[in-house]
Amino acid sequence: MRKYILIHIILALLYVPHAVWLYAKPEEAEPVVHKVALEDLILALTNGVRKQHGLKPLQYEGRLREVARHHSTDMIRRKFFDHKNPDGLSPADRIAGGHRTLIGTSGENIWQIQSQKTYTTRALAKQSMVNWMASPGHRANILNPGYTHLGVGVSMVRGNVTITQNFSGTAAYLDQALPKEIKRGEHLNFTMTSFGSFKLNAEYYEYWHEHKNERKSESIPIDNRQVNIKKGKYRLWFYFREKNSLWPGPVVEVR
């Protein structure tokens, strides 16, 4: 199916990670920051900016929030600040591994502040948005018309506030979460619900290298769900005829 390989590569590169780190002096106030309120406020401010630019709002996505929270916590716990974690996993890898039903593109923004000052939830939300919008890469993620969903994850430890935004451009959701591991000969469940501009479900799927743009199987009809590929970890990609393109799905390990 060479006709859509170029489209596949373009989609794979839609992930645009960006980071902002700073020492700052947020406005002083009560030393109480509510993490969930901060996450919700950043989503609201993000949609406010998108509205100003004539873009559709991003929908809240609970599983993306979980992946974002885990990355924010991991950065504080293991003392790094990057999109790629010490295990070598990129945002696309982490989302594909942690979100077991999403078929779609993804992107990420991260932000961190270290301060002994006290600050409000609103001050942190506004500061992170100001910094992101002042950076071309972050701004591009926030104003990406192809993104449909957002999960914001916050972690705080002793004056260190770390925020992750995980975006997705969703093509469809699998009705049942794919298992992380499956044995050869067993069957995968690819029943799905298309989303947004996608009116038809995927017709084919393929096994690709977990991290690289390397196809490891031919196109397989979506109704052929038996796992016959050799053992290994694979990223599943799904072909949608109406878009003539492949869209990334979860990672599965074949044992």
Number of strands: 11
Proportion of beta-strand residues: 25-35%
Helix/sheet category: alpha/beta
CATH top-level class of the largest domain = Alpha Beta
Work out the count of structural domains: 2
Q: Would you kindly provide a written description of the structure presented here, covering whatever features stand out?
A:
- The protein has 255 residues and is α/β, with parallel strands linked by helices.
- It has two domains: 35-170, 3-Layer(aba) Sandwich (Pathogenesis-related Protein p14a), CATH 3.40.33.10; 175-254, Immunoglobulin-like (Sandwich).
- It has six helices and eleven strands.
- It has helices at 5-12, 35-52, 62-77, 91-98, 121-133, 136-142, and strands at 18-22, 59-60, 102-114, 149-157, 160-174, 181-182, 192-194, 204-209, 220-221, 232-240, 245-254.
- The strands form two sheets. Strands 1, 2, 3, 4, 5 and 7 form a six-stranded mixed sheet that branches. It has a five-stranded mixed sheet with strand order 6-11-10-8-9.
- A hairpin with a 2-residue loop joins β4 and β5 (160-174).
- The radius of gyration is 19 Å and the shape is globular.
- The two termini are 27 Å apart.
- The model is unreliable at 1-16 and 22-31 (pLDDT under 50).
